[in-house]
C-alpha cells in the first residue's frame, strides 16, 4: 500500500474516515501482494523444476551413452 495514502488516513484530512474503509484498503492491498508473491513463487518453482529436469535428462543421456559404450566393448570382447 502506498505509504502516502496511509499517512493521509492516519494524520491527514482523512483521519476521521471510517476505519472499516481503511481496513478494507489494507486488506485488498495485502491480497494483491499475496497474489503477486504466489505467482512469483510458482514461476520460480517452475523454472527450477525445468532446470533440474533438464540437468537430470542430460545426466541420464550421458549415463546411457556410457553404458552403451561399455556394452559395445563387452560384445567385442565376447566375439574375439
* Average pLDDT number: 79
**Helix tally?**
2
- What's the helix-strand series? HH
Number of strands: 0
Q: How widely separated are the two ends?
A: 79 Å
Content of β-strand: under 5%
Structural class: mainly alpha
List keywords for this structure.
80 residues, mainly alpha
Could you please describe the fold and organization of this structure?
- With 80 residues, this protein is an all-alpha fold.
- It has a domain at 44-80.
- Helices cover 86% and strands 0% of the residues.
- The chain is built from two helices and no strands.
- It has helices at residues 3-10, 19-79.
- The model has no long low-confidence stretch (mean pLDDT 79).
Short summary:
The chain has helices at residues 3-10, 19-79. By secondary structure, it is mainly alpha-helical.
Topology, please?
Blueprint: H1 3-10, H2 19-79
Amino acid at each position: 500500500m502506498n505509504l502516502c495514502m496511509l499517512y493521509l488516513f492516519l494524520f491527514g484530512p482523512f483521519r476521521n474516515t471510517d476505519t472499516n474503509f481503511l481496513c478494507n484498503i489494507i486488506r485488498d492491498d495485502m491480497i494483491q501482494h499475496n497474489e503477486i508473491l504466489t505467482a512469483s513463487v510458482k514461476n520460480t518453482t517452475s523454472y527450477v523444476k525445468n532446470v533440474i529436469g533438464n540437468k537430470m535428462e542430460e545426466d541420464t543421456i550421458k549415463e546411457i551413452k556410457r553404458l552403451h559404450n561399455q556394452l559395445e566393448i563387452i560384445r567385442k570382447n565376447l566375439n574375439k
